[in-house]
Design brief:
By secondary structure, this protein is of the alpha/beta class. It has 20 helices and 15 strands. A 6-stranded antiparallel β-sheet has the order 2-1-4-5-6-7, with helices on one face. A 6-stranded mixed β-sheet has the order 8-12-13-3-14-15. It has a 3-stranded antiparallel β-sheet with strand order 9-10-11.
């Protein structure tokens, strides 16, 4: 659950810390006091889109922190999969900073994180149901998602999508293969030229670097010859000088003459003999280098070869390996185009089989959706009947459509709020109050399919009052027995059922606006409920009614 929310410099909130509790948490306040800012702050820390306009006027940055505790093992495993570690008590702290001058920063348990990580984890931690989501009830795609969630059809949907993806791939390949003859001929000519050019070049990986080394040797040939010659003389000697090898041999023979009388020289002789062998090997290698065939290297051939490889790399890839990779790919395409008719027939057959498989899975999914749709409309109707819409009629319209990423169904939720009227699309007839109650009803039906521990209802009471508001409050209370619920409301009947009541209040001090969030005690709740009920003037009657809503005797 969400244990603590800390907000700093977000809009009219300078600083506030809210310690939420289990059960039903209600937030109330005057219009414009800042209730929406609380929701915006939670959205931000969960990886939602933000704007620098959220930053409090005159401040360089804004900051939001949310602490979650008592997380289930699946959520903790997701935290680890994202590369983070929960605290020892299993809690997780998500933080986000929004800056005026630079890119914002995100952290999970004090380690840098991306907005994507916040969004991925946030979707598991909190579900926010606001007015914008209520209007999503008008979308058929959303209705289809409800049916799939209630029917636990994700595995079937995944299996279908895999088959549909393969069919789409083969269909695209088939369309690509069905080029007209002139286009195919042009493509064959181009690929033939390119593959012939690369074949004739006969390049190898690493050849370009070897050519550069040979060019360097040619450019420094005189210096190389002089240096090798001097090294050879230093080791082997010349007509008028002794070399290192001769000097070492003399030293070995001299010490050998006295080894009988001075035994310690024996070890020295052995070491000198080893040095003599090593130097002789070095001298042989120097002679070999001096006698190499570098003089036979043609500078023009080297430059021509370098230019050839550079030209190929400009056309087909930055390295020899890329050029050869392009060659392999072009060769396969060329063979494919030359064997066009045979390949096209095989591809068409594979595409047809893939389509048949996708259709079969789509129809199987469609049938399960039809069964689930009947259960869905029945259960949502029961919930809406409780929410003071006893005459509502619901139906799920399911029509066939061409295969797409979700199957072969167009699904739309139909509603009739008045007796004698045939159900019609939600978008055409539902009022704001009806939409709010329908959304709450659907969330209750799908509650056991939702893995999130915290549900936020932002003004779910839009367009309702009185008895209907009381029923909505009772339903929210019911949901809060299994999950933490946060609810922004304007209805006293809902606020009176809260386990914890927070008041959001705006004040102007020295021409600056400040919003505070305070936890209300019992007396504070009575006063706030009376304000909601009575408006400007609070009478004894409104105070008595407020106490009645709290279960007290006036």
């Amino acid at each position: 659950m969400l244990r603590n929310l800390y907000i700093e410099n977000i809009a009219v909130i300078e600083k506030t810390s809210i310690d939420f509790t289990r059960g039903l948490n209600v937030l109330t306040g005057e219009t414009g006091a800042g209730k929406s800012i609380i929701i915006d702050s939670i959205n931000a820390v969960l990886g939602g889109r933000t704007s620098r306009e959220l930053i409090r006027n005159g401040c360089d940055s804004a900051f939001v922190s949310a602490e979650f505790c008592d997380l289930d093992e699946n959520t903790l495993e997701l935290v680890r999969e994202l590369g983070f570690e929960p605290d020892e008590d299993g809690s997780v702290i998500i933080q986000r900073e929004i800056s005026q001058s630079s890119k914002g920063r995100c952290r999970i348990n004090d380690r840098p994180a991306t907005v994507t990580s916040l969004r991925t984890l946030g979707s598991r931690l909190i579900n926010i149901h606001g007015q914008h989501e209520t209007y999503e009830l008008m979308s058929g795609n959303v209705h289809l998602g409800y049916i799939d969630k209630l029917g636990n059809l994700q595995n079937e949907l995944d299996e279908y999508r895999s088959a549909f993806k393969e069919f789409s791939r083969l269909e695209a390949e088939l369309k690509k293969a069905e080029l007209d003859d002139s286009e195919r001929a042009r493509r064959i000519d181009l690929l033939s030229y390119q593959t012939d050019e690369i074949e004739k070049a006969d390049i190898t990986v690493g050849e370009y670097d070897e050519l550069l080394e040979q060019r360097k040797i040619i450019e420094n040939r005189e210096n190389i010859e002089a240096s090798l010659g001097q090294a050879d003389i230093a080791l082997s000697g010349a007509e008028d000088t002794e070399g290192a090898l001769s000097s070492l041999q003399i030293a070995i023979e001299s010490l050998g003459d006295i080894s009988d009388v001075l035994p310690d020289t024996g070890e020295i002789v052995n070491r000198l003999q080893s040095a003599l062998y090593e130097i002789e090997d070095c001298r042989d290698e120097i002679v070999s280098l001096a006698g190499s065939d570098s003089e036979n290297i043609d500078p023009e051939e080297i430059e021509d070869r370098i230019a050839l490889i550079k030209g190929l790399c400009r056309k087909y890839g930055p390295t020899e390996e890329d050029v050869l990779g392009y060659y392999d790919k072009a060769k396969k395409e060329l063979e494919y185009l030359r064997d066009y008719e045979e390949n096209r027939e095989a591809l068409a057959a594979n595409c047809k089989n893939a389509e048949a498989k996708a259709k079969k899975l789509a129809l199987r999914l469609s049938e399960k959706r039809r069964e689930t749709g009947r259960e869905f409309s029945k259960r949502v109707k029961e919930e809406m009947t409780f929410l003071d819409m006893p005459r509502v009629e619901l139906a799920v319209r399911q029509d066939r459509c061409p295969l797409n990423s979700t199957g072969c169904d167009d699904i739309e939720l139909l509603i009739s709020a008045n007796p004698g009227e045939a159900p019609k699309p939600v978008a055409k007839i539902a009022s704001g109050g009806e939409l709010s109650r329908m959304m709450l009803a659907i969330k209750n039906v799908l509650a056991d399919k939702d893995e999130t521990d915290t549900l936020i209802f932002d003004e779910v009471d839009t367009g309702i009052s009185g008895r209907a508001a009381q029923k909505v409050g009772m339903k929210l209370k019911e949901v809060s027995r299994a999950r933490q619920v946060l609810c922004v409301t304007h209805q006293a009947q809902i606020a009176g059922l809260a386990d914890t009541h927070w008041k959001i209040e705006k004040n102007v001090i020295n021409e600056k606006t400040y919003t505070q969030v305070n936890k209300l005690d019992n007396n504070g709740r009575v006063q706030e409920l009376a304000r909601i009920i009575g408006g400007v003037e609070i009478t004894q009657a409104t105070l008595d009614y407020a106490r009645e809503l709290l279960g007290e005797k006036p």
